[in-house]
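Researcher: Next entry in the queue.
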Amino acid sequence: MVTVTLPRAVGDTGERGPQGVKGETGATGPKGDKGDTGAQGLQGETGPKGDPGGTSDLIGTRTEAQSMTIGPEFAAVRTTGYSAPGDGGGALYKRVVSEPAHPGKFRSADGQWWELGEPSINVRMFGAVCDGVADDTDAIHAAFDFVLSKGGGRVHVPVGKYRVTRGYTHAKPYADVRLTGDTSSREDVGGAQGSTIILDSASAATFFFKNTVNQHLQISNIAFKCAQYVLDRPFFDLSTGLLAVTIDNVNFERVEQPFVFREGLIMQSGSFRNIQFRD
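Model: Structure for this entry, 279 residues:
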């Protein structure tokens, strides 16, 4: 008997059924080991130096500061001038609990006292105008008073002409005074680029500086002038005490007696260099 197998017919592919529901996420595997630390990056540029803590450079002039209320977060303030910005009288002032016993101070509108905190002072910080017309006597005397209250020190006289009409008497023992101008060369002493103090008084009794105690007086790089020629008037009257004097690069113009050494003065040491006298 013969068996015949017929081929099976293949139907068309049916449509794709819908996707089944997503199974649950498996458990998280264990954390891998920490990788090696990378190399350190290059150091950035150093930023600008900040202001000292509690200091403001935007206080204005000393005159303006007296009408200000200054916050308690400021332990010190810096002025831009004495009576006008850029007049050379700008300075650092530190807050103090009570009124200082010297002229280097001001009181703000909130009743707080502020004391001059500069390591070196100049006469413009006390209101000197230095135009040869205004009377700068009080400012220069205040600068002397300030350094003597600190036990002595340097009084700087910047370039300009300073008119004085009264003398100053130094009466604090062992408090040295160093009076220095800005003149650095012989040609500039008393010139347009120099520092000049002008004594403007017709009285023979009016001196510029008088010493009555033991001290060391140093004067350098400055010119002294009398507005009027007055017979027998001393500019520096050195009367009593033990004194050391150092004078360097100083001019005197129309000064009858630059220095008078009175009876009773004991000169411990003296140095006089580069002194010029003019009519």
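Model: Confidence is low (pLDDT under 50) at residues 1-10, 49-53.
Researcher: Noted, moving on.
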